[in-house]
Write a sequence for this structure.
């Protein structure tokens, strides 16, 4: 009996999840320009500056 | 290498949104680090074409112009950055760097003073002012600024500059003191 209830709940949850996910617009899945920019800024912060001749503080924007 | 990955991410941002101005500015900044000044200039130009009041992009382009020896254009760009504002300490540092490149040392010193008045931890301004004092023979002032630069400079930022500053400070310390 318990196994039946668990199986029912599991299949209901999966169904609900599929319904929610398919209802989301495609844009919700897309990576935005801001996301890419933020990732780029993370790399900038880890940047290797020792070989550069950067003398002036550059203005980045996250 | 993280700089290459950064360029890739900023390029992806631009691909997603060709009007995403921050990505042009940031990618230009990475090109500067890689000393690819023409590519940097293209990006800052694009950023400013999209957003003509983008002060940070003016400052960054000014630095590229200064590196190219185009000091007047560099000074014009910083003036523009200060006009559209809000002003930042590093803008004065950039303009001072351009003035120093042009040989206008009094103007350069004035700008470095302004920059450090706004931000006492702006290490590049200490380095630039130290170099100008060095050129004008003000050894004590140069020593103080080289010392400040060494104190504030992040070890990972620019080892070559740090090494040069330390070497010059040692040389100055071994010389006779200023006679006023």
């Amino acid at each position: 009996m318990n196994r039946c209830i668990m199986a029912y709940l599991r299949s209901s949850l999966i169904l609900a999840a599929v319904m929610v996910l398919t209802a989301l617009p495609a844009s919700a899945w897309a990576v935005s320009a801001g996301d890419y920019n933020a990732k780029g800024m993370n790399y900038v912060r880890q940047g290797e500056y020792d070989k550069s001749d950067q003398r002036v503080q550059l203005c980045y924007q996250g | 290498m993280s700089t290459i990955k950064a360029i890739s991410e900023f390029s992806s941002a631009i691909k997603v949104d060709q009007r995403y101005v921050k990505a042009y500015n940031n990618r230009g900044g990475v090109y500067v680090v890689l000393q690819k000044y023409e590519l940097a200039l293209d990006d800052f130009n694009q950023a400013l074409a999209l957003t003509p009041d983008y002060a940070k992009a003016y400052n960054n382009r000014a630095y590229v112009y200064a590196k190219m020896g185009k000091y007047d254009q560099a000074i014009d760009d910083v003036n523009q950055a200060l006009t559209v504002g809000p002003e930042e300490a590093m803008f004065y540092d950039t303009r001072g760097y351009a003035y120093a490149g042009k040989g206008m040392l009094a103007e350069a010193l004035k700008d470095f003073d302004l920059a450090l008045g706004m931000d006492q931890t702006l290490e590049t301004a200490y380095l630039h002012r130290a170099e100008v004092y060095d050129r004008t023979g003000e050894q004590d002032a140069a020593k103080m600024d080289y010392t400040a630069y060494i104190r504030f400079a992040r070890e990972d930022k620019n080892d070559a500059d740090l090494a040069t500053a330390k070497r010059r400070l040692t040389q100055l310390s071994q010389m006779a003191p200023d006679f006023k």
Chain A has a mean pLDDT of 74.
